[in-house]
Glutathione synthetase
Amino acid sequence: MPLPYWVDVLGYVAAFCTTIAFVPQVWLVWRRRSAEGVSTIMYIVLSVGIILWLTYGVLLQAWPVIIANAITLGLALAVLAMKWVFRGQMPRDDSLEVARLNR
């Protein structure tokens, strides 16, 4: 028996919310060119969990789960990659950019 339409809508809305929540972190790390304060272990464990959710979604053919976790995995891996690429660099000073924009 197929699920009601609103169940899929609920899944897509939940997927959107949990996925979009990572965008500010990715943007901040990219803008500052620093992932100082970002826990590597947390993002590794999170990425493994996302891979498992993605696999679960594929096995169930649950598109909200598949789409959200594929995108979220990309965002989480982006933070991990930037943490590695930007290691040892001085973070950008956002106050200089803010002062320039306020002129």
